[in-house]
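batch_manifest entry 22 of 60
target: Polysaccharide deacetylase family protein
source organism: Paenibacillus montanisoli
requested by: lab member K.T.
priority: normal
notes from requester: please return tokens only, no post-processing; we will run our own comparison against the previous entry in this batch. if the run fails, retry once and flag.
--- input ---
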Amino acid sequence: MKAAEIINEVQSAGRLIAITFDDVPDPEWTPQFLDVFKQHGAKATFYTLGTNMAKYPEIARQIHEEGHELGNHSLTHPHMPEISKDEQRAELQQAEQLIVEVTGRKPNTFRPPYLDVNDDLLVVAAELGYKVIHGLNLRANDWAMPGTEHILAETRPSIRDGSILLFHDAGGDRSQSLEALSVLVPELLEQGYRLVTVSELLGLDR
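--- output ---
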């Protein structure tokens, strides 16, 4: 089996951008991010952590019902290169099952925890039919609470047709990320971008 490739952007996608969130869902922050996207009629991809989905299935269901995409972010958020190939496969499959229970469909895309990959993981992802997604604005480091202006300043240079942008809406205080997205979403729309799911960006939408 050929290994999966890591995707940071999609060439020639037109005026489309995919905004993504990791570690979802969170009972405090996820609904607030959903409100921002609802206000502007935009869509996003939420990379769900299986253990959080098991705790908050109603929030995962809200994400799906509001037209967003649920992607796979593993079951327990391990450093995937440090576990065996069989354990990698189990992490993806068990998280996948939780997503299927909410959405009725298998997710198309997977974001590795910590963006850590090795050859085994890329093969496992391909075997399971996943596209492996990273992102362009990695210097934003929104998870570290570096300040709203830092998040925006390190994200804006990554904005172009076909960009995939990475943020977090769980795992701690996400007020800076929320504030940054409250600025960025309308800004992108004013620039003529359409905010879509990763699957739509990749042409995988069914």
